[in-house]
Amino acid sequence: MGWPIIGESLNFISKPTAFYNDRRTKYGRVYKTHLLGQPTIRVIGAENVQKILTHEDELVTHRWPSSTRTIMGENGVIHSGGAEHNSRRIAIAKAFQHSALSTYVPEMQETVHNFIRTWCDKGRILGYPECRTLAFSITSKVLLGCDFTQSKDVEEALANFEDNLFSFPVNIPGSGLHKCTGALALPVPARQSQPDRASKHCPRTAFRWPPNYRQRRLLPDDASWQENRSCRQNRRRTLRPSSLPRGQFQYPAESGRHK
Q1: CA 253, 255, 256, 259 torsion: positive or negative?
Q2: pLDDT tens track of the chain, all 259 residues?
């Protein structure tokens, strides 16, 4: 289980692949450890994982590390459960259906063309950072209605956010959690500084769904089972993310439905 309080977090963060391989060799496919401030049971293998994923909310319940809950907010969609999670996820999924995605194409094409012209003028570029900037530009323009391409601070804040989303839950200067919470403060004033462009652009983007979502929450029938089943990612479990990042954990369910 490692050291008191920090457990084996340092080994896990510094060399995650070696950490998993060493523990698997030493303890097998199911073992206990202590990561990111939480006692943890590591489960490996299709047969073992299937038991967990097919009995979610019975044997285990979905939960994120405490640092991630702090960063994303306790009321975020990833922390909600049951009917609330189901309703939120269905509403958000509508922003990424074909009918919505097709409206983003003109803006995306224009952005890509502008970037390609810039790359051609430069002659030689570093592919990864340029593509990352392109993806950042498309996301900010299409989903937020803002142009952050000239704001390197916001782009660096996003990189900080991604790098420290799963970190040790200690908010002190220099820690990953401190860097991440500091990075969250930058996009808000940057977004507020572009109200004219945002008000003009946002009605054409995916985020037309929030008013409809709020209206639906007032209706007695809310989101139906048929609507839930129509979302491909929800056909088996409403609480299953599309992928399981390394920092996600499964906790014993508190519902009392398991023996």
Answers
A1: negative
A2: 666 667 787 777 788 888 888 888 888 888 788 887 778 888 888 888 888 878 766 777 777 777 777 777 767 676 676 677 777 777 777 777 787 778 888 888 998 999 999 999 988 899 988 998 888 888 878 777 777 666 677 777 777 777 777 777 777 787 777 777 776 666 555 555 555 544 444 444 444 444 444 444 434 444 444 444 444 444 433 333 333 333 333 334 444 443 3
Q: Long-range CB contacts (< 8 A, 24+ apart) of 124-132? A: 132/159
CA-closest candidate to residue 247, choices 16, 4, 15 = 16
221 residue type, one letter: D
Structure tokens at 258: 């398991």
Q: Write down the domain spans for the chain.
A: 9-95+217-252, 109-202
